[in-house]
Amino acid sequence: MIFGWPKTPNAYVSVTDQYVFVFVCAFAYFAFFNACYSNPGIVNITNAEKVNKLFDHDYLIFSPKMCSTCLIDKPARSKHCSLCKVCVAKADHHCAWSGCFRKTVLYPFPYVFFITVNNCVGHNNYRYFLLFLVGTWILCFYMTYIVSCVLLNEIKIHNVARYLVIDPKTNQRRQITQTEVYLFMAQSQAVLTALAVSGCKWQNSQRIF
């Protein structure tokens, strides 16, 4: 957004695209923070009986037993998380990519905040986690589309496709090739090109002009 936003709207990116991009970002972050900070479904003494009624024991994978750490009857499909130190109903996994802001000293920036998920994914927040994955997937593809359009517009307004270069073999001037256009844009717009390439691998096979 920092590098591409000032170059929009343009011939290929409308104001509507800007609003859609902001909406998709907001949606992804909404789902992310809800997955991070919502209760994943912690099981304790006060709600253990209620949670036990959610799922039946199949006596194949899940059999009635007590959690030796929490000292409660473990509901079916629950798991004790050694990191959170709690039992989680319908536990899926402990996600290491959400949950808190961590301030780290990283030279040359004295204070850098990393967003990390340090929360379990369980019965109460797995919907938010799935929405976060979907939102991130949409954001990657849409970001690739927007950045590619910005780069295409840069090629158009600067008439890069008509640049003349000196052929190292013949030492004669010739028109720039498509591959050389890619290389030129990668050098002159390094950040935007990196975003376009990293957003989605399928974009590598698309022709931009």
TrEMBL record:
Residue span, Palmitoyltransferase DHHC domain: 63-99, 116-188
Keyword presence, Nucleus: no
TM regions (residue ranges): 20-37, 128-147
PROSITE patterns in UniProt: DHHC (PS50216)
Annotated compartments: Membrane
Single GO molecular function: protein-cysteine S-palmitoyltransferase activity
E.C. code: 2.3.1.225
Record keywords: Acyltransferase, Lipoprotein, Membrane, Palmitate, Transferase, Transmembrane, Transmembrane helix
Membrane topology: Multi-pass membrane protein
Catalytic activity, reaction form: L-cysteinyl-[protein] + hexadecanoyl-CoA = S-hexadecanoyl-L-cysteinyl-[protein] + CoA
Keyword flag Nucleus: no
InterPro entries reported in the protein's UniProt record: Palmitoyltrfase_DHHC, PFA4/ZDH16/20/ERF2-like
Domain notes: The DHHC domain is required for palmitoyltransferase activity.
Family: Belongs to the DHHC palmitoyltransferase family.
Protein name, as recorded: Palmitoyltransferase
Organism: Rhizoclosmatium globosum
